[in-house]
Amino acid sequence: MNEFDIVVIGAGPGGSIAAKVAADNGYSTCFIEKEKLDNGGRYKACGGAMAWELIEEIDYPEDKIGRVIESLELHHVDGEDFSKKGKGAVVWRDIFDKFLTDLATESGAILKDDEQMMNIKKVKAGYQISTRKDEYKAKYIIAADGVSSPTLKLLDWPFFKSQDVILTITKEMNTSKSYIDKILGSDTVHLFFGIKDLIPVGYAWLFPKTDKITVGWGNQIDLVKNSRKEFEKFWMLPFVKEALKNSTLEIFKPHLIPVGVRPKLYEENVFAVGDSGGMVDPISGKGIPYAMMSGQIAIETIKSCEKKDRLDKLGTTYEKSLDRRFLNILKAKRIARDKIFKDDESLKKFLRLWEKHRASEIVMKKLLD
């Protein structure tokens, strides 16, 4: 039996940061990933856009960036456009996630990749985890295995409400850098909105990388009637057709994204982080920085409560720390999302404000009222 202080399930951004912080703090740590992680990592259906502040914070190498971005173009299908300036980056998630995984292993965390978790059960000293290859025991579990989290499902945790889950479709399209620069711009990403004529609650996107375009579409899952036909409406927009002319399909993948907090975030030494806990911006769909912060906060919570000999406070300490750092804002955004997507006029009012303000500022200062 491989015994550890902490076992992390999932090697995405939340899991890798949790494993790194745990190892940095002297905990024996193992993180288990179902996919095989070779030098290129594993593909993740995600646009991969992130703020430049995060790139600088983790010292992410510029040669690993798919494209540096200076503006976000917001298109409503009725023809009205909005533009939001700000520096960012578009990354390939396999390369980005592998970078974080390597940081964790360099800190001393043991990575077990190509090992699908098959079972987890409570035992006297903590938890026993069974994979296709081995068995592990740990006092603490970090569930960082996505919105559908097999870990939390096996532990009988409640799932998200249907209105708090978005179905996305992602296509990776091969084209040329020169054509992207000509049609989409050399430093621009594009979002597409329209409640009545495109997507009731969500948006679609074109995120250019070096010589590929990530094409995405996302709608609240309980409102999806025929995803293929609904995605086709986006695909047939004149601007989109022009951008994708002569491109070829490399990858097609559906994916689920949470846009509301899971009803439970902690129980009996098990912490939900990242998408497993629903720590995603309900308006923009941004989740990477919140996954990373929640992974760090989970380990800081363990360390703090152990030091104070207050293990009975693990859950309340974790949730209070999350609320203080970012979760209260995400909860407020979830409430505001219903107001934003009430009708197209409300949506366009938000887009006009978003041109000059951060979404969190719009919500917290009640600029929509």
Can you describe what's shown?
The protein starts with a strand and ends in a 5-residue tail after the last helix. It has two domains: 2-42 and 95-160 and 262-341, 3-Layer(bba) Sandwich (FAD/NAD(P)-binding domain); 49-91 and 162-258, 2-Layer Sandwich (D-Amino Acid Oxidase, Chain A, domain 2), CATH 3.30.9. The strands form two sheets. Strands 1, 2, 6, 7, 8, 9, 15 and 16 form an eight-stranded mixed β-sheet that branches. The chain is built from eleven helices and 16 strands. With 369 residues, it is α/β, with parallel strands linked by helices.
Q: Please, what is the CATH homologous superfamily of the largest domain?
A: FAD/NAD(P)-binding domain
Unreliable stretches: none
The end-to-end distance, rounded to whole angstroms, is 58 Å
Derived from helix and strand composition plus strand pairing, the structural class reads alpha/beta
Morphology call: globular
Q: How large is the radius of gyration? A: 21 Å
**Residue-averaged pLDDT:** 96
Q: Could you say what the CATH topology of the largest domain is called?
A: FAD/NAD(P)-binding domain
Number of domains: 2
Order of helices and strands: EHEEHEEHEEEEHEHEEEHHEEEHHHH
Largest sheet: 8 strands, mixed
How is the quaternary structure best described?
A: single chain
Number of helices: 11
The top-level CATH class of the largest domain is Alpha Beta
Got a strand count? 16
- Helical content stands at 25-40%
Estimate the strand proportion.
Answer: 25-35%
CATH architecture of the largest domain: 3-Layer(bba) Sandwich
